Every structure is written in structure tokens, then in C-alpha cells.
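Predict structure. Input: Cobalt transporter, subunit CbtB, 58 residues.
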Amino acid sequence: MVAVTRTLSPVLAGERLNAVLVAAILGLGLLFMSGFSPAAALHNAAHDWRHAHNFPCH
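Output follows.
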């Protein structure tokens, strides 16, 4: 039986790092934007999203 070892090539490792960094930046951006925006703006955005996707809300 032959043992198979898996190693990441430098290209795949770099792509994975880029994906993690982009996800982290987007996540932190959403967190800070929602944390510092007024509550009424968040409510209106969620309300408009529900209407745009045909979800009943009232």
C-alpha cells in the first residue's frame, strides 16, 4: 500500500490566505458599519430588503 501525503502548493496557500483576508475585511467592515449606523437606518434597510424580496413584514 502506498502512503499519500498532501501538501499545499505555494499558489494554493496564497489563494487561501487571500480568501481569508478578504472575508475578514468584509466581515469587519459590515460589523463596524452596522455598529456605528443609527438604528433607524438599519431598520429601514432591513424593511426595504424584505419588500424587495417579497417577504411579508406587516
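Residues 10-53 form one domain.
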